[in-house]
Amino acid sequence: MNAPASPPSPYAAATTNSKVESHTLSVLVDNEPGVLARVVGLFSGRGYNIESLTVAEVAHAEHLSRITILTSGAPETIEQIHHQLERLVPVHQVTDLTVSKRSLERELAMVKVKGRGEHRTFALQLAEAFRARIVDATTESFIFELTGKPHKIDEFVDLMRPIGLVEVSRTGVAAIARGPEPI
Amino acid sequence: MSKEMTGAEMVVEALKDQGVEIIFGYPGGAVLPIYDVLFHQDKVQHILVRHEQGAAHAAEGYARSSGKVGVLLVTSGPGATNTVTGLTDALMDSIPVVCITGQVPTHLIGSDAFQECDTVGITRHCTKHNYLVKNIADLPRVLHEAFYVASSGRPGPVVVDIPKDVQFARGVYAPPRSAAHKTYHPKLDADLETIQQAVRMMAAAKRPIFYTGGGVINSGPAASTLLRELVGLTGFPITSTLMGLGAYPGSGKNWLGMLGMHGTWEANHAMHDCDLMIAVGARFDDRITGRLDAFSPGSKKIHIDIDRSSINKNVKVDLAIVGDCAHVLETMVRLWRAEAMSAEKQPLDPWWAEIEEWRAKKSLAFRNSETAIKPQYAVQRLYALTKDRDVYITTEVGQHQMWAAQHYHFEEPNRWMTSGGLGTMGYGLPAAIGAQLAHPGSLVIDIAGEASILMCIQEMSTAIQYRLPVKIFILNNEYMGMVRQWQELLHGGRYSHSYSEALPDFVKLAEAFGAKGIRCSDPASLDAAIKEMIDYDGPVIFDCVVDKVENCFPMIPSGKAHNDMLLADLSDDAGIELGAVIDEKGKMLV
Fold first, then answer.
1. CB B174 within 8 A of CB B2
2. Which of the residues A6, A62, A64, A89 would you substitute to probe the B interface, choosing the one with the greatest number of B C-beta atoms within 10 Å?
3. CATH label of the domain that carries residue B521
4. Chain A interface, Cβ < 8 Å to B
């Protein structure tokens, strides 16, 4: 989902020198039909990046869903994304968890690895080091389940590649604020 | 007072409760129940347009000239898709519009039924918000919410898509309630301390300028009054975007004229050289800023806007004030009055002296002709002969639009309706119809081009049917003039498909519709012809045959800065050699 770096627009000449940053935005929305399309459509329509996106209902009685979006862009682009999201009518609250710096981020991945003999042993040792669980096994394959920050999962997947990586399924990032206060 | 009724009845009941007197629409299978309810009542007048795009623009013209919400009613499928241009136009220019669309019955949604389309999917990107109402119990709330969302905060279009079975279903109607919306809370009042800081910056400025936009008009007449008061108190110069014309009077002594791509020399130079810019309800659009890295390099910038996302979008500002213009301006006026005695206000004479030098360039000047009608002259005469009347002006899009903005002057807000953000050819005639319905006794003129007018010409029938005496003043140069001007600038004068071939005879066209047609090609008889148009009690198409090759100046070529403007060459007939002024980078721009 990462868009390739587009050539800077001459109209945007004043703002293209900034460094690209990754930010995690937590968006609390009314769980009504089309709300995800509104959020995703905002990103595609305005040319913003989505690196990962997680959405699920978090309060059934109040019809609230939380959308957690990992996005990247120059700081002024992130600021724009934040305020554009706030403008959507069914959005209750937008929080930039990267700015608040007090957040926990987790992602779950299931990683299928195929191999025999020595490869199986390597895979099991690495899985233990990463605290990955085996959730399915055959004589020639494993499926590992692991949870962690996205870069931890990236590392695990990279290590499995030479061993016999078949495929990966990831949930995208879920995030929450540390401490007693809500986001 | 809750009562039981059908969904279709709820629609009309909600319109009445929202104070809607006029709606624009076109019937079809999926809205027949609502049309049947309209048939049985006379509180809400329905204006039958000839194309749904016309309904959307007419609703916009109605809204912009009256300050009320414009309403349209169309059927499913093509009825809904035909409104997309108008909805996008309303979104770009922040015009409050409620569009009610019929939909196939809920059990057929998703089956590719006859005249089915995914209306909420299609219009999600061109509305402020939209709704598909699948349950009759939600309908009254959604209808009232649509009006609230359309008209509050930064206004915009809202679509309510109602399946046919929901129109037939019975439910309990509830009138509008003042209960707060669950999620949508536009911020009207700004933080006092920030406004105090702004006033201090204003008092310390040596070269200040007000840069105002459509937000001042949208905020309501109070904002314009307060703006005038603040300009009077401070003595600062003021310029405005295309959308904001009329908020400050065109005859006002601090008025610099419009800024931007076809703005005046003095407005653009003052923007470039100012030390403090106070942006009020304007959004730093590319037509305004020109080259961004050379935009007003030495100034501090204050930005007042009701939409937080407008701030720092294109131009980074030093002080952001999020709130409604009228609220903020009121506080500014109050603080300025209170602090005027003690504040060390800077003398502005040197700044004004500089501005007067720029003004002396007379950047709107053109070489008049005794043989051909110059388009600028035509607008000047139209202005001279109509300015003392109660007049509303709409335009299409192109050179004529810019000449109208430059040479017609507005003393009041809500008198000028033009498609600014989207630049929609075909806007002017239906918008004029909407404005005429809002102001039945007033003179409404669509300043048009011969190419644009053909895009919604079918609405002449609407004007005839409802006896709306709109005047269409066509500056006919037989070219899509602005396209031709850009082809001259960017493509070596190769006029690819920009010649208006096979034009109709506009006089006969007017007559075919049952309107009056007037043609004029002689500068000497122009005044008499314009008077004939004004005096005619009914719609008129005025075919004003103008100089074919005139270009629109001044101009900031794309990719250039405010102080890098082109002026009309008044010295000889050859005009400016346009081909060489834009570099490769600029050619990429629009």
1. yes
2. A89
3. 3.40.50.970
4. 10-15, 29-30, 33-34, 37-38, 41, 45, 76, 79-80, 83-84, 86-92
Question: Residue A3 has what pLDDT?
Answer: 44
Active-site annotation holds for B3 = no
Q: CA nearest B411: which of B213, B224, B157, B279?
A: B224
Same domain, B424 and B318: no
The answer to whether residue B574 sits within a structural domain is no
d(CA B242, CA B107): 47
| C-alpha span between B246 and B411 (Å, rounded) | 5
Cβ atoms B475, B375 nearer than 8 A: yes
What is the domain range of residue A91?
18-100
| A64 and A126 part of one domain | no
> Residues B293, B349: one domain?
yes
pLDDT digits (tens, 9 = 90+) for A169-183: 999 999 999 999 888
B560 catalytic, yes or no?
no
Cβ-based neighbour number of residue B511 at 10 Å: 13
Number of structural domains found in chain A: 2
Torsions phi, psi for A110 (to 5 deg): -115, 130
- Top residue of B119, B149, B182 to mutate, by most chain A CBs within 10 Å, is B182
Answer yes or no: are the C-beta atoms of B177 and B148 closer than 8 Å: no
So what's the pLDDT on residue B587? 74
Mark which of A83, A100, A117 sits at the end of a domain.
Answer: A100
Asked if the C-beta of B320 comes within 8 angstroms of chain A's C-beta atoms, the answer is no
Residue B346 designated active-site: no
pLDDT mean over B76-103: 98
State the smallest CA–CA distance between residue A183 and chain B in angstroms.
16
Whether residue A78 sits in one domain with residue A135: no
Centre a 10 Å sphere on the Cβ of residue B353 and count the other Cβ atoms it contains. Answer: 9
Q: Report ipTM for this prediction.
A: 0.91
In degrees and rounded to multiples of 5, residue A140 shows phi and psi of: -125, 10
Q: In terms of DSSP H, where are the helices of B152-246?
A: 164-168, 192-204, 214-219, 221-234
- Please give the residue range of the domain that contains residue B318: 192-359
Decide if A8 is inside a domain: no
Residue B351 sits in the same domain as residue B381: no
Residue A107: partners with Cβ closer than 8 Å, 6 or more residues away: A52, A147, A148, A149, A150, A153, A170, A171, A172, A173, A174
Yes or no, beta carbons of A87 and B308 under 8 Å apart: yes
Structure confidence at residue B487 (pLDDT): 94
Provide the residue type at A104 as one letter. L
**Cβ contact B464:B513 at 8 Å:** yes
What lies within 8 Å, CB to CB, of B57 at 6+ separation is: B86, B89, B424, B426, B427, B429, B430, B431, B434, B456
Q: Report CB contact under 8 Å: B128, A89.
A: yes
For position A12, what pLDDT does the model report?
A: 47
Does A25 fall in a domain?
yes
Query: Are B182 and A84 a contacting pair at CB < 8 A?
Result: no
Cross-chain Cβ contact B183/A90 below 8 Å: yes
Q: Is B312 on the interface with A (CB under 8 A)?
A: yes
Last residue of a domain, one of A100, A133, A167: A100
* pLDDT of B578: 67
Terminal alpha carbon distance of chain A: 27
Q: Any idea what DSSP says for residue A43? A: H
Taking CA–CA distances from A62, the nearest residue in chain B reads: B182
Q: Which residue of B has its CA nearest to A38?
A: B124
For residue A176, the cross-strand partners are A104
Q: What is the pLDDT of residue B348?
A: 95
In chain B, which residues have their Cβ closer than 8 Å to the Cβ of A79?
A: 312
Q: Is residue A7 domain-resident?
A: no
Quick: pLDDT tens for B435-469. Answer: 999 999 999 999 999 999 999 999 999 999 999 99
B115 is catalytic: yes
Active site residue B41: no
